[in-house]
Design a protein that fits this description.
The complex is a heterodimer of chains A (about 400) and B (about 300). Chain A is about 40% helix and about 20% strand. By secondary structure, chain A is α/β, with parallel strands linked by helices. In chain A, a hairpin with a 2-residue loop joins strand 13 and strand 14 (about 300-305). In chain A, helix 8 (about 250-265) crosses helix 9 (about 270-280). Chain B is mainly alpha-helical. Among the domains of chain B are: about 10-110, no CATH class; about 190-250. Chain B contains seven helices and one strand; from the N terminus they run H-H-E-H-H-H-H-H. The chains are: A alpha/beta (about 400), B mainly alpha (about 300).
């Protein structure tokens, strides 16, 4: 009996017998062979053991992200159905006690606002630019903090889109029309850590692209930090086609705050409270309901009718917008100026101010002779939707080259 | 073949060829070997009759014991995987050490010497078995005598209880008789009333005390029981918390939601504004390429 035959009968169970052969030498030899042959026996019994490598670089599926980085709100729309908008606030616990209490290293959005007393709070996209770039930062600003906050915010908004690790992630990020190169580079740096390939485009352009309005349309994108104007005429808008105004949502908040202090000096309020009042009651022209709010006076909640103050504050941006429109229209081909005036697209969070479209229209009639303002259906996601569409339409090799 | 370390490494040698078992001489009668014993090996014609010899290496023994221990522990107790591994490893190591310490090498031994070793081992094992059997019998006897002692003690306690009860009954009977004697002799009803009351209350108090003592004893037992259970549950809770922490850490890995697109899309040629959009895509790409290249060069 050959050793090999012997070993096929000796199994791995320890109390199974090993057959002796002719001499005790063979016994020992047999056991030796058992040890070595069992391996091949196992291999043949179970089939050939294939050595294969998992290619960790292979990804199946493509996730497109359309991101709108706003001063006040950051939104993302994704091709997996996820749609999220968060206030553009990032907070870090002030000390160890705060960290233990909050159980987090970083907070975002509403949570950061709510717990802001325990946090070092950042709004890294102030005035439409990244505060971490040199242009956006003031001498008193925490440069390093803003850099970190911007990166964390971008990473967070991408995370909220719930990308899978086995999918490519291609993102288009809308940034303000007049954002400088430094700002754009800062945004790209922040995004590259979490996506496979990223492109930037102008925010108002992405709004127009998302609605398939590529020709003879004027986009007004009213954000918190800036109001972007962009005229579309069937080609890529250049610098002359775009205009950024600093009159925007924050301007209204500041004006409302000033008026309340002036008219109700005893009332106590914060800028966050003013913002909430504006978002709830913001309107231009006649309001359907009076805006009565409760503000503390020496610690006691007191009702104030702030209807006029709100109306007045919201009205402040109408004139600058129409002036900007006038500038873009007047420098356009005169043959097509009337077309532009008749297709003014109002977008952005500020477009939710009731009656603003009518107020702009009225002002256009007064100053420019005519005008027709259209409201986008989803002001919060208009920019992100458009960016998503751009991401979808971008050819594959363009993405590859930018990886 | 217990405790023998049959080295499996052929290089270290075995019983020399010259001592190999030879077939019986023609015509020689062979005593039928007892199956399974070492004598079997020494019988002539062993080649034909001894079909199987159970040989078990110490490694296999240790592995089998380790597996049995692991299964036993995991069935009876709550251990985390690292704890199980550590316990099994420790037991396996100890077992291997003891096996090696009690084993003898049989490498290079002639057949006779090997058989002598085997027989000596067999005798020793049998002696051990006998000693173990005697010890077991002795332990069983001790256990039985312990049970008997417990039974006897129980009977004594019952008898004591009955005896003390009888004494109390007798004392009570005597007191009652005394009271009735006073009644018959015309004693003051008030005095008799006081005596009866004192007797009754005294008996009642005694019973109350006994009842309270019994309740307290039960209560103490219950408390001890609960404390043991709490200790067990606390231990189990710690293990569960550790496991939850591990899972919680794993939970941070988000699986994500899959995109509706399996491949990169791009513009559809059916699009109404295909040419315009194509130009626009090209412009956006060119601007981004320039931006990112410039940034890469600068950094």
């Amino acid at each position: 009996m050959s050793d090999h035959d012997t070993t096929t009968e000796s199994e791995t169970e320890f109390d199974d017998p090993v057959e002796t052969t002719e001499n005790f030498d063979s016994t020992t030899t047999t056991t030796t062979t058992t040890t070595t042959t069992m391996t091949s026996h196992d291999a043949t019994a179970n089939g050939p053991i294939e050595n294969f490598e998992v290619n960790t670089e292979q990804k199946e599926g493509v996730l497109y992200l359309g991101i709108d980085l706003g001063t006040s709100r950051t939104s993302v729309t994704a091709s997996n159905g996820q749609r999220v908008t968060v206030p553009s606030y990032v907070g870090y616990p002030k000390d160890v006690v705060a960290k233990k209490l909050l159980k987090k290293d970083v907070l975002f959005g509403d949570e950061a606002i709510e717990k802001r007393l325990s946090l070092n709070l950042y709004r890294p996209l102030g005035q439409g630019v990244l505060k971490c770039s040199q242009e956006g930062s003031n001498s008193g600003d925490d440069y390093e903090g803003n850099v970190r906050a911007a990166k964390d915010l971008i990473a967070e908004i991408i995370r909220q889109a719930k990308p899978r690790t086995d999918e490519l992630v291609y993102a288009v990020i809308g940034c303000p029309a007049e954002a400088s190169i430094n700002n754009r580079e800062a945004i790209i740096d922040a995004a590259r850590k979490t996506v496979d390939s990223v492109m930037l485009c102008s925010e108002p352009f992405s709004v127009a692209y998302g609605l398939d309005m590529l020709d003879d349309v004027l986009v007004i994108d009213i954000g918190a930090g800036t109001t972007d104007l962009c005229r579309m005429h069937g080609t890529m808008p250049d610098e002359a086609d775009q205009l950024t105004l600093t009159f925007a949502g924050d301007t209204i908040d500041e004006e409302l705050s000033r008026l309340l202090k002036q008219n109700y000096p005893e009332a106590q309020f914060s800028i966050q409270m003013v913002k909430s009042i504006k978002e709830k009651y913001g309107a231009v022209g006649e309001l359907l309901d009076a805006a009565v709010v409760e503000l503390p006076v020496n610690g006691k909640p007191t009702s104030f009718d702030v209807t006029n103050e709100i109306r007045q504050a919201c009205q402040t941006i109408v004139n600058p917008i129409v002036e900007g429109l006038g500038q873009l229209i007047s420098t356009f081909d005169p043959e097509f100026q009337h077309k532009l005036k008749d297709r003014v697209l109002l977008a952005g969070g500020g477009s939710q101010i009731k009656g603003l479209d009518k107020a702009i229209e009225a002002e256009m009639h007064r100053i420019l002779g005519s005008g027709k303002v259209l409201l986008v259906e989803e002001p919060m996601y208009g920019g992100a939707n458009g960016a998503l569409k751009i991401a979808h339409d971008m050819p594959a090799d363009y993405w590859e080259q930018l990886k | 073949m217990d405790g023998k370390d049959l080295d499996r490494d052929a290089d270290e040698g075995a019983i020399p060829e010259s001592k190999a078992i030879r077939p019986p001489a023609p015509g020689a009668s062979a005593t039928p070997p007892r199956a399974g014993g070492p004598d079997e090996l020494s019988a002539p014609g062993v080649k034909n009759r001894v079909r199987r010899l159970n040989l078990v290496g110490s490694t296999q023994i240790t592995r089998a014991v380790a597996e049995a221990v692991r299964r036993g522990l995991s069935q009876q107790f709550v251990f985390t995987e690292p704890q199980l591994e550590a316990a099994v490893k420790s037991i396996g190591g100890e077992l291997m050490k003891r096996l090696k310490a009690s084993s003898k090498s049989v490498r290079g031994l002639p057949k006779d010497a090997f058989l002598r070793e085997v027989r000596a081992d067999k005798k020793r094992i049998e002696a051990q078995r006998e000693a173990a059997r005697r010890e077991l019998e002795s332990l069983l006897e001790k256990l039985q005598s312990s049970h008997d002692a417990v039974d006897r003690r129980e009977e004594e306690l019952v008898a004591e209880s009955r005896a003390s009860g009888q004494v109390e009954d007798q004392a009570l009977t005597a007191k009652i008789a005394e009271i009735f004697a006073d009644l018959e002799s015309g004693a003051d009803p008030e005095t008799i009333r006081e005596k009866v009351t004192a007797l009754t209350l005294g008996s009642l108090q005694g019973e109350r005390d006994r009842a309270i003592e019994a309740q307290l004893s039960d209560h103490r037992n219950e408390v001890e029981n609960f404390e043991r259970r709490i200790a067990k549950l606390t231990h189990s809770l710690h293990l569960t918390e550790d496991e939850l922490k591990r899972i919680a850490a794993a939970k941070n890995i988000e699986l994500g939601v899959g995109s509706i697109y399996r491949t990169v899309q791009g513009l559809s040629s059916d699009d109404d504004d295909y040419e315009t959009k194509k130009e626009l895509m090209s412009s956006i790409f060119a601007a981004n390429l320039e931006l990112q290249k410039g940034h890469a060069e600068a950094s």
